[in-house]
Write a structure and sequence with these properties.
Helix 1 runs parallel beside helix 9 and helix 5 packs parallel to helix 6. The chain has about 325 residues and is α/β, with parallel strands linked by helices. It is built from ten helices and 13 strands. About 45% of the residues are buried. It is about 35% helix and about 20% strand. It is globular and about 50 Å long. The strands form three sheets. Strands 3-4-5-9-10-11-12-13 form an eight-stranded parallel β-barrel, surrounded by seven helices. Strands 6-8-7 form a three-stranded antiparallel β-sheet, with no helix packed on it.
Length: about 325
């Protein structure tokens, strides 16, 4: 397993991270806690030491599962990343979403960040977080105040590094000038390349780690999805236009050369996609949703695959043929 730095203010971490959104069950059709604990442990055993979760994933459940999974493990060998800024127990002027009977609000007020951090520490069973991230920007709190809070938490030893998620390139640059910003986390995949001309250049300029979430596009890039796939009503993919039959049909042509190369290399399509993603300029880590021990082993193996220039070019050519999700919404 390769490892890279989480930006100039961060620490070394495996390039493949355990993405813990799905194991919280929220918007993923529920979760099996026992299988999830085993998946986390299998990932750690396979060389994945970066685990990315969030308070809102399962409304605390994901963090609790991660905490249970790492009990008895050497804490210094694990890089724990979690997030703050989404509250379902209070109301603020910034409504983020309504889901599963809960109203979720944004806030990055200092008192709220500190309260959330205390809750996350308890659920995870630790006394510090390696990478603490703001989940979404808060329109009610100035970025300068947010940076000041996170820098203070770092100085106090409650967190080792901090990052932002779902931000604009302008605010990433501003945060890097204001404080010790380590990482930016954004959606990025072979099908979602907007960050190539947005945050990725800024992250390279300021030596900020770039963590991409949904690198397999919520399963679309496994090469296993077709129009017959059905999702539970509480699965975010149910009724999602990104999973419409026309999209799945068009995707087959894009993935055909990738699947062919995967067969030649003796790897899976998703492993090849992850390896390609990790070799894109500025990308430092990929966060891969993992729900069982089979997925854990497969995802971890992608962290040791190197692609030569010809292979990279072939996959990039396939990616460039993708018309974009917008083409199917007209």
């Amino acid at each position: 397993m390769k490892s890279r730095s989480l930006g100039k203010h961060g620490m070394q971490a495996s390039v493949i991270a355990f993405g813990a959104w799905a194991i919280g069950g929220w918007r993923w059709g529920g979760a099996d806690a026992e299988a999830s604990v085993k998946a986390v442990q299998a990932s750690l055993d396979a060389g994945v030491n970066l685990i990315d979760t969030a308070a809102v994933y399962g409304f605390g459940l994901s963090e609790e599962i991660v905490g249970e999974a790492i009990k008895g493990r050497s804490r210094k060998d694990i890089v724990l990343a979690t997030k703050c800024g989404l509250r379902w127990d209070i109301e603020t002027p910034a409504l983020h979403a309504e889901s599963e009977g809960k109203r979720i609000f944004r806030t990055l007020d200092e008192a709220s960040i500190r309260w959330e951090l205390a809750q996350s520490l308890e659920r995870l069973g630790t006394d510090y977080i390696d990478l603490y991230q703001t989940h979404w920007p808060d329109p009610e709190t100035d970025l300068e105040a947010v940076v000041a809070t996170l820098d203070k938490l770092r100085e106090e030893g409650l967190i080792r590094a901090w990052g932002l998620c779902n931000e604009s390139p302008e605010r990433i640059a501003e945060a890097a000038r204001l404080g010790a910003l380590s990482t930016d986390q954004e959606r990025y995949s072979l099908l979602d390349r907007e960050q190539d001309s947005a945050n990725l250049p800024v992250c390279q300029q300021f030596d900020i780690g770039f963590l991409c979430y949904s690198p397999i596009a919520q399963g679309l890039l496994t090469g296993k999805m077709d129009g017959k796939r059905e999702f539970a009503d509480n699965d975010l993919r149910a009724g999602n236009p990104r999973f419409a039959p026309a999209v799945l049909e068009a995707l087959q042509a894009v993935l055909a050369p990738v699947k062919s190369l995967a067969r030649d290399r003796g790897v899976t399509t998703e492993q090849l996609v992850l390896a390609w993603t990790l070799q894109q300029p500025g990308v430092s880590h990929v966060l891969v949703g993992t729900r069982d021990i089979t997925q854990a082993a497969s995802n971890a193996a992608a962290g040791s695959i190197d692609l030569d220039s010809e292979e990279l070019a072939m996959i990039s050519q396939a990616a460039d043929a993708w018309p974009g999700f917008e083409a199917f919404s007209k």
